[in-house]
Design brief:
Elements lengths: L2 H12 L18 H15 L8 H4 L29 H10 L6
Helix pairs in contact: 1-2, 1-4
Length: 104
């Protein structure tokens, strides 16, 4: 099984054709968090990759509820005040080869 081709096939199926250095979480063409959830499930099942350590909010910060302060919100609704880190196609390829998420 050619892991590179499989990862690229999944990326193209869920999003569009991308190069290895293309980031899905920042830049000009960011994917939607909802679409990323679907991709991650398919990626994990298709390639048998353990994504338990994947920190979703690191790459897709929560926008929260803009008119409410974080102090009164539960943790899952709080606004993250950081820029998203790059999440590249190459990261998915390397993790697929290792069988687990390598970057968190």
């Amino acid at each position: 099984m050619d892991i590179d081709a499989t990862v690229h096939g999944l990326i193209e199926k869920h999003f569009w054709k991308m190069d290895n250095d293309t980031s899905l979480s920042d830049g000009d063409h960011v994917v939607l968090p909802e679409d990323m959830n679907s991709f991650l499930n398919d990626y994990s099942e298709s390639l048998n990759v353990d994504i338990e350590s994947f920190n979703f909010r690191r790459y897709f910060p929560n926008t929260g509820i803009w008119f409410l302060p974080n102090a009164i919100l539960p943790e899952y609704l709080k606004t993250d005040h950081h820029k998203p880190e790059p999440l590249t196609v190459q990261m998915f390829i390397e993790s697929a080869k290792a069988g687990r998420w390598l970057y968190d």
